[in-house]
Design a protein that fits this description.
Layout lengths: L2 E3 L1 H12 L3 H6 L6 H6 L4 E5 L5 H8 L3 E6 L2 H9 L5 E4 L12 E7 L9 H10 E12 L7 E3 L2 E5 L6 H10 L3 E10 L3 E10 L1
Parallel strand pairs: 1-8, 2-3, 2-5, 3-4, 5-6
Antiparallel strand pairs: 6-10, 7-8, 9-10
The structure holds S-adenosylmethionine (SAM).
């Protein structure tokens, strides 16, 4: 029986092998982030829940000035080892340690699924974005918790699926405008991710 862990404990254990699943993580986006990563060139960008830097490093390589925020020191330690110029900041995406109007763009992939509610996170994205700035968020749909194994045994990391409609409504309540909504499907019927581009 796999034990369910909260994110900090779960990612402390998962950090060492997280990067081995890169292709699996990419499959939730299916390259739909590429135009927005290109758009980030020359911009001040936050990657919220950046983990080991899968997206942060792509943003950096595209010419953005990137800050990576995550609550897992172990995940950020992996990012730092990659010797990129991404600034790593330890902190909570529901209480971001940044001033209002700090960033031109906020990216967040595969992190919102670990939050019980999306409202506080979206509010923080809105607050730290400059007027006219964009948030690009990936809301993934896990049908079953991913069972992970290490030398201490089997475990899962707590996840909360968020209905796409609820995320859109929460964003609109904050006065974000929905620039784009992309739904990614598996076997053409089941949604596996919702990619939202939100404009402040
Ligand atoms: C599945 S990983 C995604 C990492 C990276 N964004 C990617 O796409 O590969 C989820 C990350 O969200 C982080 N996370 C979860 N809840 C968080 C919170 N409240 N504040 C900051 N980071 C959080 C975890 O520590 C973990 O690194």
């Amino acid at each position: 029986m796999a034990k369910e862990l909260k994110s900090p404990e779960g990612y402390a254990r998962y950090a060492a092998s997280y990067d081995q699943g890169e292709k699996y993580w990419d499959s939730f986006e299916q390259r739909n982030l590429n135009p927005y990563i290109a758009e980030a060139k020359g911009k001040k960008v936050l990657d919220a829940g950046a983990g080991t830097g899968r997206i942060a490093i792509r943003l950096q390589d595209a010419g953005a000035q990137v800050t990576a925020l995550d609550l897992s020191p172990e995940m950020l330690a992996r990012l730092k080892r990659k010797k990129h110029a991404v600034e790593a900041v330890l902190g909570d995406i529901e209480a971001m340690p940044f001033d209002d109007d700090s960033f031109d763009m906020v990216f967040s992939s595969l992190a919102m699924v670990h939050l019980k509610h999306v409202d506080r996170f979206l509010e923080e994205c809105y607050r730290v974005l400059k007027d006219g700035g964009k948030a690009v968020v990936v809301n993934v749909h896990y049908r079953k918790p991913k069972i992970l194994t290490d030398k201490s045994g089997k475990y899962t990391i707590a996840c909360y699926n968020h209905f796409p409609r609820h995320v859109v409504e929460a964003a609109e309540k904050l006065a974000f405008s929905i620039e784009k909504e992309i739904m990614v499907y598996e076997e053409s019927t089941i949604w596996i991710s919702q990619i939202l581009v939100l404009k402040k």
